[in-house]
Specification:
- 43% of the residues lie in helices and 15% in strands.
- The protein is of the alpha/beta class.
- It has a single domain, classed as NAD(P)-binding Rossmann-like Domain (Rossmann fold, 3-Layer(aba) Sandwich).
- It has a 7-stranded parallel β-sheet, sandwiched between helices.
- The mean pLDDT is 96.
Length: 254
């Protein structure tokens, strides 16, 4: 009989970026329910996330940081360790998107997207992997990719580039770190009800075009990602390395 305790995160500490809203908030709540201490990192207040977790006496701490600048990483690591001790799970969820025609993309906007969605992801991974390799206790990294990791999208060239890079980076780091008992995997959410898709969902024609392509017939929710996030952070996924799991309502199967 399968031991369902392998899905428990009891006694572990997870750090989740972009924790104030959307998928990041949903993952924080799910991890706390699974028994983890949760550190939420965001540029804006995570009070709503904290309130959801305190409602069931979960453990949560907030770190406010601008994730466009990798110089904040040492402080993030230090404050997380002060809050709960060793961090066991890292979820790189924070991301930004800027929509405009490719011919109108500015260098400033391009760099802004790449810095948050790609550069910060790598250097946060490295910061925690260095510690996990040194103490030889391993860890879990989950990078949040996108459906546009597989497709070109429309009017989001920097976002598509960054999220395609996330899948490649996930594979590359898994190749180097699997032997150190560090699992590096990803989740590629489909079209979700989050801040990033507000404009799409508000556009009746675009929303209908998208929904007609989703076999499940609805937009996804942060709760839909929770199970995958718990699974990849748990002992149940101990032999999974370098894989990105699509949580997309069947979008890629269409």
């Amino acid at each position: 009989m399968t031991d369902l305790n392998m899905f428990s995160l009891e006694g572990r500490t997870a750090l989740v970026t972009g924790a104030n809203t959307g998928l990041g908030q949903g993952i924080c709540v799910a991890y706390a329910k699974a028994g983890a201490n949760v550190v939420g990192v965001a540029r804006r207040s995570c009070q709503e996330t904290a309130d959801k977790i305190s409602a069931f006496q979960g453990s949560f701490r907030e770190i406010l940081a601008d994730l466009s600048d990798i110089s904040v990483i040492p402080r993030i690591v230090e404050e997380a360790q002060k809050a709960f001790g060793r961090v066991d799970i890292l979820v790189n969820n924070a991301g930004i998107i800027k929509r405009c025609d490719a011919v109108d993309v500015t260098e400033e906007d391009w760099d802004a997207v790449i810095d948050v969605n790609e550069k910060m992801v790598f250097f946060l991974c490295r910061a925690f992997a260095e510690k996990w390799i040194a103490d030889q206790k391993g860890g879990k990294i989950i990078n949040i990719a996108s459906m546009l990791s597989y497709q070109g999208g429309i009017r989001v060239p920097a976002y598509t580039s960054s999220k395609s890079a996330v899948i490649g980076l996930t594979r590359a780091l898994a190749n180097e770190w699997a032997g150190h008992n560090i699992n590096v995997n990803g989740i590629a959410p489909g079209y979700m009800e989050t801040n990033n898709t507000q404009n799409l969902r508000s556009d009746g024609q675009r929303s209908e075009e998208i929904l007609s392509r989703i076999p499940a017939g609805r937009w996804g929710t942060p709760e839909d990602v929770a199970g995958a996030a718990i699974f990849l952070a748990s002992d149940a996924a101990a032999y999974i390395h370098g894989f990105t799991l699509a949580v997309d309502g069947g979008w890629l199967a269409r």
